[in-house]
Amino acid sequence: MATTPNMSRQPWSSMGQAMLEARPECSAPVRHDALLAVLGIFTTDSEHSHRHRTEARKTWLAQASRSASLDVRFVARTRGLRVRSPLHAESRNHGDFVFINASSRLSRSQGPLATLWAWMHCAVARWPNTELLGKADDDVMLLLPSITAHLRGSLDELRRIQNVPERIPESPSMLWGVQESYHWDVVTRRPDGFDDEFSYKRNCMLRNPLLKHTQSIGPFNFAKGACLFVSMGLTRQLLTHRVKEEIEAAMAAADSISAPMRVALSHLENPRALPWEDVLLGWALTTTVASEAAAFVHIGRHVYAEEWYNAGVGLGLAPSTLILHNRGKRSARLKRAHRWSQRHHCAPPSVRLECAAEPYISCAGATWRRCTASAEPYAAASCSTVITHNISGRAPPSAACERHALRTLPMRRDVPALRAGHCGETEFGDFDCSEDDSGAWHIRSLDNKTLEGCMARCACCERCRYVSFAPSRGDCSWYHACNLSDGLQDTLEKGTVSIGMRAPPA
Fold first, then answer.
1. Residue 165's domain is classified under what CATH number?
2. I want to staple 298 with a disulfide (CB 3.0 to 4.6 A). Which of 238, 284, 372, 410 is the partner?
3. Cα dist from 356 to 290, 295, 360, 372, whole Å
């Protein structure tokens, strides 16, 4: 019979001094209806968090009110909160807060841990018939309808894979999110070897040391904390296990030990400190859960973005994006990203999970499946690539534009050709540009066939606002109003070859 490994060798076992008091009282009323999930967005009374909440309510959070299967709340710690905190007035105005009995004055190292622990206690007590508990940061943008579909599809897939009869009401157990793994060095008390998705090592019971660090244990799997969901059944096991003392000790001692906890591998550009709430949750589940039908569900590729830059540089949004983590903390960009997602986002028609042939054996001896959502449903999703409206507010361009729907101006032959890339080479929008910028279509030839081909390509390109057609190169190039150099702007203002888009005739 599998037993839990000696707690003295677990991460954070030597931290315990005074336990942090985080009792489970919370302000939420009991909700008995059967929901798919309850999602807590962790927030504070800082000005940054206030701006994030304001933008969220104006954009992606508006979808939550239309969901019958998902309850979304802001979660804030209130013990020690100042009397005139804006959180109180905000809660009265919007009614979307849950206040938990934990100190509001904790550090960045302690605060999220205390919030997660108290939120789990609260959710289990106040949403007793809900299948999943979720946690998100307040600087994210979530595509809630698609996340709901992904969660439901993941549970259905696990039922199919595990051959769970439909007559059994209990849902499969899972930790859902962007999965990663790490090892823990019990001597230096530092993490070793963060891996994307799942570690190739499959048995935590064997300690599985890294090649050069024989004192390490693991691997521990976890879901990134920007947005994750865990089954209520797993949460209940965690809250009733003796590991809760270890978690509370970790919260109490977080400040004193976080500084030296750095990732040992040099190839990581941003070494992260521990313990954070997502890493600790993964360790706790790996250590305590005795379920034989649990699963780590990696939500797939091209569905999570941590930051976005100009198109083609770094990470960016895609039609399949479900979670955007706005690490730059800029609310204006969140608004632009929401506009982009409204025009481009495609909900996956279905979710297919591909699970590793050999399961993962946790430190508690439990068998966990390691499953990844297949990327094929996203590639096959049916999206309209035609822009729903152009920046000047006129009718949208269409691949079916006819020649007589366009108005041409005389071409000046003394202006050299200018190029800036291929129309349609990217679907990413330019988030530094205003939607109110005016634009015109620019070409280098009045040949009907090539003109129509250029316009058809441009109609499917989000960044296509100015087009330059070069017969010698056999393609058309695009420009965006916000990206134009002074020289190019002067050329365009002279009306070199201008085509103004009008509505095609009815």
1. 3.90.550.10
2. 372
3. 20, 11, 9, 9
Residue pair 16/249 in contact (Cβ under 8 Å)? The answer is: yes
Omega cis (within 30) before 275:
yes
Query: What does the block give as tokens for 479?
Result: 């420009």
Q: Which two tokens stand for residue 142?
A: 């979530």
DSSP line for 243-257 = HHHHHHHHHHHHHHH
Per the listing, tokens 């095609």 go with: 504
190-196, strands of its sheet edge to edge: 190-196, 179-185, 216-223
CB 180 within 8 A of CB 224: yes
Q: Are residues 341 and 462 in the same domain?
A: no
CA Rg, the chain, in Å?
Answer: 26
Greater confidence, 291 or 33?
Answer: 33
What's the token pair of residue 49?
């968090």
| Same domain (yes/no): 328, 455 | no
Q: Taking Cα atoms as reference points, which of 99, 50, 51, 108 lies closest to residue 73? A: 99
Q: Which residues contact 465 (CB under 8 A, 6 or more apart)?
A: 390, 391, 437, 439, 478, 479, 480, 481
- Taking the C-alpha atoms of residue 188 and residue 114, their distance in angstroms, rounded to an integer, is 25
Mean per-residue pLDDT for 233-259?
66
* pTM of the full structure: 0.68
Considering the domain boundaries, does residue 288 fall inside one? yes
- How far, in Å, CA of 372 to CA of 127, rounded? 28
Q: Are residues 326 and 245 in the same domain?
A: yes
- In whole angstroms, what is the distance from residue 77 CA to residue 114 CA? 8
Concatenating the DSSP letter of every residue in 186-198 gives TTTTEEEEEEES-
Tell me which H or E stretch contains 151: helix 144-162
Strand order in the sheet with 406-408: 406-408, 498-501, 441-442
Residues 6 or more apart whose CB falls under 8 angstroms from that of 282 comprise 175, 220, 221, 222, 223
Average pLDDT, the chain: 66
State residue 10 phi and psi, 5-degree precision.
Answer: -80, 160
Residue ranges making up the domain that contains 451: 399-500
How far, in Å, CA of 425 to CA of 430, rounded? 13
Percent residues over pLDDT 70 in the chain: 51
Assess if residue 505 is contained within a domain: no
Going by their DSSP bridges, the two strands 227-231 and 132-137 should be labelled as antiparallel
Residue 391 lies in a domain: no
Amino acid at 298: H
Q: Are residues 186 and 241 in the same domain?
A: yes
Question: What is the residue whose two structure tokens read 């291929």?
Answer: 422
Residue owning tokens 């590991």: 243
Handedness of CA 373, 376, 382, 384 (dihedral sign): positive
- The alpha carbon torsion through 286, 288, 293, 298 (nearest 10 deg) reads -30
